[in-house]
Amino acid sequence: MTTPPSPATTATPGLPLFYGTPLPVRFPEHRNLGLRADGHYRFAAASPALPLTVPEFAAAGRVYPIVFAQDEAAMPLAVTGLAAGRNLFVSPDGAWRPGCYVPAYLRRYPFIGIEIEAGTPPLLGVDTTSDLISTDAVRDGAEPLFDAGGEATERTRSAMAFCEAYAAEHAATRDFARALTERGLLVARTAEVQLRATGSAPEAERSVLSGFQVVDEAAFRALPAEALGELHARGWLAAIVLHLASQLSWQVLLDTAGDAPAGLSA
Fold first, then answer.
1. What tens digit of pLDDT does each residue of 108-162 get?
2. Roughly how many angstroms between the first and final C-alpha of the chain, as a whole number?
3. Which CA distances in Å does 164 have to 95, 160, 169, 172?
4. Which element (helix H / strand E) includes 230?
């Protein structure tokens, strides 16, 4: 079975992953909107890979292999599953696996920064199709986005600050991925996963994951001193090392899958 570790399985064409109808939050149009208290991650249950930013590499790499998308942008992804349509870290009730890092992309949802006009500060947007959002905060006991006077609540201000910080980290990560591509450091890879046979599955299950890139260690070691100096000045040498170290976390995925692994080669 070939499974590209791409988050696109639950993406709406032309929109960011998970977002259905993101709209700028405005008063009085959205005066009754609120964030439901029973937060969950069911929206990510079918995503075997999730967007990641460079500042997350240290925390994420201890749990997830970090790879790069095999497209022009080559943005980093945290691999969260070994098969299409399944995220191993989301339980049936929508909880994230205890003790495991939750990517910022998920923690931002259902909010997002929306740029209305180039060069102007983005507005806070919200995915109005998400079941995390209530259209009647008072009725549903949700956290309102506006107070009675039409001012943004603390929850809304916090969401805006998070979206602004995420946007800056995403832009810096885009520059990092571009630098790796321009220096020829990324190479396509596959990972062959084999799970040990069990009573219910007498033959070992085998999956081949493809559609991703990693840093080529040989090309990285061959970089001239000047190029290494440039990467170091941008703080990217550490990110490359953390990415390479995260390849040890393929074993975490095997363990999380709930079966005793027979082996993994990549």
1. 999 999 998 887 889 999 999 999 999 999 999 999 999 999 999 999 999 999 9
2. 15
3. 26, 6, 9, 13
4. helix 225-233
